[in-house]
Amino acid sequence: MSLTERFAPLAKLASLAAQAPLTQRRLRVLLSPQQLLCVVRHGKRLVEGSAQQIAVAGAGAGGHWQASLDALRTLLQQPAIAAARLPLEISLSGRWSQLVLAPWSDALLSEASAGRFLQTQLAALYGDNTRGWSVVGDDAPYGHTRLVCGVDSTLLQALKDVAAECGHACRVIEPLLGTALRTMEAQRQQGWRRARKDGKGADTPSGALALVEPGRITMAALRDQRIVAIQSQPASDAWRLELPQAWQRWTLRAPELAGVATVAVTDLSALPPALAPSAALHLVPEALPSRFVLTTNPFGEPAIVTGPVAQQPAPAAAPEVAA
């Protein structure tokens, strides 16, 4: 079971949406500090012309999630979206979905002790803020490390409330990294089917994924479609120069990664024009080294770019997820 599937009962998402056929249209949304991205998905296909990019003003890269939640409400109130009432698939930026690999422990054999153990693994990195988090782990086999995700429980409840308020079933809440991985795998399977039809050999599966968000690079090493190592670091607009350097440093610390031939790259770094930094001269190559291969954008190419949504004052009592 993936983190995506386990977040559904955690956030008490609508059971009807969970049983909906895969061919049903859904609205895929990325919730992040500075922007919202959304696109209509029909089965495994993104509907052409449906992608939107919405700037969130005043939040900043380290901002509270309330401004983005307000932008989500505004999005769902758009006449066309409100009329369609499509089930939601919400991806959470790495800013608000903290991931860590936990070592195997016999505590994972019991559901009650597993929850406490996974909570302590996140607390070791993120401190007391984790007391207000909902925590889930994947179903890695016995004896293997387990991928753990923590999300502010207040944010999960707020997402559920906004979806219900606007008449939408919320089918999925997942870390953005999970969305990128599923998109990469779907692209690989599509390439495999095309190669088989043409009588050609399929490309070798990527052994790692690099997810680029505004101000952040997250790298994940993969084995058998599972994350076996993860590394995150700050990034600038010159991420095309920084990514190969970051990968090289990581392989020096983890020599077993040196054999990874291909790193898939999901680039979600582009901000709306209203929030993009002023033009500056960067001696940064446009192309990445051959090891790094750009993948399909899970949210399509924006057909509509919307100006900033004003930030509302964040509730003082609402806990904020650590960076």
Itemize the secondary structure elements and their pairings.
Layout: H1 3-10, H2 15-18, E1 25-31, E2 35-42, E3 45-46, E4 52-56, H3 66-76, H4 79-84, E5 88-92, E6 98-102, H5 111-126, E7 133-137, E8 146-152, H6 153-165, E9 170-175, H7 176-198, E10 208-213, E11 216-223, E12 226-234, H8 239-253, E13 263-267, E14 292-294, E15 304-309
Structure description:
The protein has 323 residues and is α/β, with parallel strands linked by helices. It has 3 domains: 113 residues, Nucleotidyltransferase, domain 5 (2-Layer Sandwich); 50 residues; 114 residues, Nucleotidyltransferase, domain 5 (2-Layer Sandwich). It is built from 8 helices and 15 strands. Strands 1, 2, 3, 4, 5, 9 and 15 form a 7-stranded mixed sheet that branches. The protein has a 5-stranded mixed sheet with strand order 12-11-10-13-14, with helices on both faces. A hairpin with a 3-residue loop joins strand 1 and strand 2. It is globular and about 50 Å long. The C terminus is likely disordered.
